[in-house]
Amino acid sequence: MLRSKLDCVTVVTGHRSFEIEAALWGLPLFSAFNKEFVQGMGTSLACGFRNISHANLDGVLVMLADMPDITAAHINELLMAFQSSEAMVVRGSDRGKPGNPVIMPSALFSNMCKLDGDQGARDVRRRRLVPIRLVDIGFAALKDVDTTDEVLAAGGRIEASELPQ
User: Fold this and answer.
1) Which pTM does this prediction carry?
2) Cα 88 from Cα 125, distance rounded (Å)
3) 59-62 and 10-13 as β-strands: parallel, antiparallel, unpaired?
4) Where are the alpha helices (H) located in the chain, listed in sequence order?
């Protein structure tokens, strides 16, 4: 994200926030702690939207932290598509299958600030009937790493203290 053409980056932390913020120390980004992270992804999305200045923003790119194959080029491709669109959601996809990252237009910001629990942005998009433009960025749009095996297969490493007992 920092290598892309994004104007700024905000990272929402929750579980293991001290370790994450230490790893990010010195990078040109903002950090927001979601004290309600155990309640689900919706609270993290809302935290992120509440902790950015919406002034003069046409949209906000939302990216999951566990998508190792997303590149600056993918993000820039989504940004270009968003800039040429009229107030619509722009979403990474692979051969027509929706994925991530997603750029949310300013028309949805107030609704995004109200998410809670495990509620994601899908419901917000449906309620507002905002059109969605899929941008094919390939398999990277669908690949995330949720398990120890997936982290290792993606080139990550697991500390012994992180392994399940």
Assistant:
1) 0.88
2) 10
3) unpaired
4) 17-24, 41-50, 72-83, 109-112, 121-128, 148-153
Question: Rounded to whole angstroms, how far apart are CA atoms 162 and 91?
Answer: 33
> Which helix or strand (DSSP H or E) is residue 133 part of?
strand 132-136
Q: What is the pLDDT of residues 14-62, one digit of tens each?
A: 999 999 999 999 999 999 999 999 999 999 999 999 988 877 899 999 9
Q: Which residues of 10-49 are buried (b: 16+ CB within 10 A; e: fewer)?
A: bbbbbeebeebeeeeeeeeeebbbbeebeeebbbbbbbbb
Buried-state track 55-78, b at ≥16 Cβ within 10 A, e below 16: eeeebbbbbeeebbebeeebbebb
Q: Which two tokens stand for residue 6?
A: 């994004």
- What number of helices (H) and strands (E) belong to the chain? 6, 6
For 90, phi then psi, to 5°, come to -115, 130
Separation between Cα atoms, residue 94 and residue 40, nearest integer Å? 26
CA 79 to chain CA mean position, Å: 14
